[in-house]
Amino acid sequence: QVRLVESGGGLVQAGGSLRLSCAASGSIFRFNVMGWYRQAPGKGRELVASITTGGSTNYADSVKGRFTISRDNAKNTVYLQMNSLKPEDTAVYYCNVRSSVNYWGQGTQVTVSS
Question: Which whole number is the average pLDDT over 78-87?
């Protein structure tokens, strides 16, 4: 049984910063891709950023230069540092771990006020 526990969401003013964390527990293949997706009200879920076990990263164009994804393989934890937040970043953010199976966290709300 794999479990993903997210933390770090909240309410912040535009221009502010937040750091999301996601700790994975259970049996996960050591070579995997960890990432963050988000879903705003009335919109589909979209990839924000992802990182491989080897550290290769991928970002949505809308967050490049503002968000940084990182991971600690020893702790099976992925982080998302979000700087210069904008109101359009408001969404529920979901942690994802993808190996042979796709795992999802429960989601954490990020709200950016203008």
Answer: 98
